[in-house]
Specification:
The protein has about 110 residues and is an all-alpha fold. About 80% of the residues lie in helices and about 0% in strands.
């Protein structure tokens, strides 16, 4: 069965899933995780963020770039999910690093 033969809802869920996973995978190039626990946590956050915010992010990106009319709903969902996943995965990595540094600074004060 081709993707065009899937019901519209299933196509959007598939597009968001693929985009969210792709966004999390691409994020590894930006900030490498420190261990499996951090990698799993950041992957889960990226996946959930992509699934939840993928549609809205895709519409916003499409409108900002002026390409919303040229892309299908599934393509917009894919783009948005990848972008939301990438942003969440990257941001969580930064927050974890800052928290670790703050924890070390507090430990050194004692």
């Amino acid at each position: 069965m081709a993707m065009t033969e899937l019901p519209a809802g299933a196509t959007l869920w598939l597009a968001k899933s693929v985009g969210a996973v792709a966004g999390s995978a691409i994020s590894i190039a930006y900030i490498l995780p420190h261990g499996r626990r951090e990698a799993a946590l950041r992957f889960a956050v990226g996946l959930v963020s992509g699934m939840v915010f993928g549609g809205a992010a895709g519409v916003k990106i499409g409108r900002e770039l002026g390409i919303a009319d040229a892309l299908s709903a599934a393509e917009l969902a894919l783009v948005g999910a990848a972008a939301a996943s990438l942003a969440a995965w990257w941001a969580l990595g930064v927050v974890l690093r800052v928290a670790l540094r703050a924890g070390r600074a507090d430990a050194n004060r004692d």
